Every structure is written in C-alpha cells, then in structure tokens.
Amino acid sequence: MSDYLTEQLTLPHNNLDINSVKLPVYDNDGNLKHICEVLDFNQMYEDYMIELEIRNYSENTVKTYGSIIKNFIEYINTEKIYDRKQFLRSFKKYITELKRTKLVTQNYIYLNTVVCKKFLEFNNIYYLDEIKNPKRTKSLPKSLNENEVRNLINSITWDESDSLYKQKTKMRDKLILALLYSTGLRVSELVSLNTKDIDFEERTIRIRGKGDKDRLVLFDNLTKDLIFNYLKIRNSDSEYLFINKKGSNLSSRYIQLMIKKYAEEAGIKKKVTPHILRHSFATHLLKNGVDIRAIQQLLGHASLSTTQIYTSVDMDTLKTFYDQAKLQFK
User: Fold this and answer.
1) pLDDT for residue 3 is more than 70
2) 16: buried, middle or exposed (CB in 10 Å: 19+, 13-18, 0-12)?
C-alpha cells in the first residue's frame, strides 16, 4: 500500500465541461434522471485508465486505482442520486460503509478518497470539493533482523539428488531473495529485470523505476556469484533475468507466495513479503551508518520523507546508541 499512497496523480483534466450540465435533469416525461444516466461514468473510467497507462503508472497502481473507481461507480449506480448534494451524501455514506462493514484500514480509506476525487477532477467534476482527505496512519514498517534474513536465504539448498529443473528453480528462488534484500528492489522492478542491464564488473543493475526514472542499484559479491551461476544453469536466451519453465517472466504473485513458503520453512514467525525485504534492506543500511540520502537514491524515492518512513532502527541499536550517549542527570 505504501507505494500507492506516495504516488501522486498529476493528470491533465478531460476537456469535457461537466459544469455546463445543470442537475437535476428531467426526461421528456418530466421524471428525474439518475446521475448515471446524465453522466457516462463508465466512459470516464475507460478514459482515465488509458491516461494512467499512457503516463506510465505502474501496473499495480493502475490495477488498484481501477478497482477503487469501479467499486465506487457500481455503488453510485445503486443509490438514488439526482443532484450534486445527493452525490456528496452518497460518497460520505460509501466511505462510512467501507469503514464499518468492510473493516478496511485508515490508509485504504485515505486512498479511496484521494483516488475518487482525482478521478472526478480529471473529468471536471468537483462535487467532492468539500471532502477533506482523511488522515493516514504512519506505523513503523516491519522488517527482519540480520539473522532472520540470513536464515531465510540459507533455507534454500539443493544437491545432486535434485533434478536439474529443481536445482534451477531453487537457485533462481535463492537469487530472488538475495537480490530483493541486497538491492532493495520493488517486486515489480524485480520481475522486469533484464540480463543486459546487469554490470558484473561494477556490481550494478540499471533499474527502470516509477515515472520511467532510471537508477543504479548495487549488489554484493555473494549475489554476483548467484547471478553468474544461475545464468549458466538456466539455459535460456530470454531477455528477462527471472523466468518460469515456459520461458516467460515471473509474476509478482509467484514471488510473494514463494517468499511466504520459504519463510515458513525457515521458521520465521513474522509476515515476510518482498516489501518487508525492501524495508529490511533500508533499515540495515541505516543501522550500519549509511547516510539516509544514499539510501533514498538506492530505493529510488523522489522524496526524502518517503525514505524516512521506510527506515527504522531496531530497539537494540537504539539502546546501544542511547547508552553510548551517557546522559548525565546527577
């Protein structure tokens, strides 16, 4: 969810002048027309999705925004809405129902509010102008400690008794874990990695991140050996680094399920996801004295404030720093 919250919509408005439509509208028989009969929200939705695609919003972001808008359109179709005031009331009711019956997080309420407002504004509809964006919760992100990361990656082993396919799969999965942790990549960036973008000599990978911005990430010598050995054994000329048995690049869903499986095998009780490995990468760099601006660059954040949310020093390290300070009150 964090990436969705930090990605800002700065889209030009549609040329359609909705404000010229005076509500309520009556049909030829003098009956009130539902707002969905007056305004073609489905066409607006399609136009908006096309605009997001054109502007290179990430696949996950487009999917999330699309789902939010679709659900809202379906909801207003079921409501008796004939004018702006009723539309505003229905939106408030919708958000309240999300909170009470769906038991969604406060951040999801925030995201729904922002996305719906931006969608409407893109189409020159300002019916929700008086709605203020709700507050977001800013909880510290979870992360693994160094031992947990080590146990997770080392839980993947293979030997000569394994079939060649099994060896390749395990080697690939181990490399995925090592890369997510040693580079801080987003899972969407990982599944799109091209072999041509890897520089073994410099130990860097060129990443095309959000907003089509390129950046370089670093990897260590252990990860370098894993990449080299995996490329030797995988026997494919695919441009993608990570592929399945059909030669296609892996899905983000596969990565998520794979990490969950190995975390359970490693005996890690915490929830482990690609994003938690990204958090762990940032947290451990900060703990070991790396400047936060360098971490910002490695993570590919436009804003330093975003990086500060991603990084947190564990309590043992804080205690060490605290004791070293030798505060005096006697």
Assistant:
1) no
2) middle
DSSP state for residue 137 in the 8-state scheme: P
Among residues 9, 35, 31, the alpha carbon closest in space to that of 23 is found at 35
Domain boundaries, the chain: 2-122, 146-316
Left, alpha or beta for 17 (phi > 0: left; psi -120 to 50: alpha)?
beta
In whole angstroms, give the CA distance from residue 153 to residue 149. 6
Find the helix packing angle between 164-183 and 252-265, rounded to 10°. Answer: 100
Between CA 271 and CA 74 the distance in angstroms is 33
The sign of the torsion formed by the CA atoms of 176, 181, 182, 184 equals: positive
The model's pLDDT over 181-219, given as tens digits with 9 standing for 90+, comes to: 999 999 999 999 999 999 999 999 999 866 667 899 999
Burial of 131 (0-12, 13-18, 19+ CB in 10 A): middle
CATH class of 146-316: mainly alpha
Please write down the HEC assignment for all residues of 62-99. Answer: HHHHHHHHHHHHHHHHHCCCCCHHHHHHHHHHHHHHHH
Residue 300 CA to residue 133 CA, distance in Å, equals 26
Residues tagged active-site: 186, 210, 275, 278, 301, 310
**Is there a cis peptide before residue 24, judged by omega within 30 degrees of 0?**
yes
Buried b (16+ CB within 10 A) or exposed e, 36-64: eebbebeebbeebbeebeeeebbeebbeb
Q: What is the pLDDT of residue 38?
A: 94
What is this structure's pTM? 0.67
Count the Cβ atoms, other than its own, within 10 Å of residue 310. Answer: 24
301 contact partners, CB below 8 Å, separation of at least 6: 6, 307, 310
